[in-house]
Write a structure and sequence with these properties.
The chain is mainly beta. It is built from one helix and eight strands; from the N terminus they run H-E-E-E-E-E-E-E-E. The strands form two sheets. Strands 1-2-8-3-6 form a five-stranded antiparallel β-sheet. Strands 5-4-7 form a three-stranded antiparallel β-sheet, with no helix packed on it. The longest helix has 7 residues. The protein starts with 8 loop residues before the first helix and ends in a 9-residue tail after the last strand.
Length: 110
């Protein structure tokens, strides 16, 4: 768990050397904060919490339940708990903040 309240997302992402390419920066019970920098392939599975992505570098296509959304630095996106999603067509410099929040749900959203 990260204890700092401010992070340079691009610097943290540049320091990631292992897969999966994410670092959890904080966990406050009802919310967690990560930096995510997948390379080539995004192996995500549906999560048990809602999440928000804020893209800080590069570009990709975010697939949510079969719908495609172009994202780039400055884009923000919401994915509900249990939704099938992943990034495809990732640029080599793709980096995004990930904020998980809310109640934990099963992988099938009611």
């Amino acid at each position: 768990m990260g204890s700092e309240r401010v992070h340079d997302g691009l610097a943290v992402a540049a320091a990631i050397t292992a897969d999966p390419r994410f670092v959890e920066l904080g966990d406050w019970g009802s919310m967690t904060w990560e930096i995510y920098a997948p390379r080539g392939h995004d192996p995500q599975q549906p999560h048990d919490r809602d999440e928000i992505y804020v893209v800080v570098g590069g570009s990709a296509t975010l697939m949510i339940e079969g719908a495609a959304y172009a994202v780039r630095a400055g884009s923000a996106a919401f994915v509900a708990a249990g939704e099938d999603h992943r990034f495809v067509d990732l640029s080599e410099d793709f980096v995004t903040w990930v904020i998980f929040g809310g109640e934990r749900h099963g992988v099938a959203r009611a």
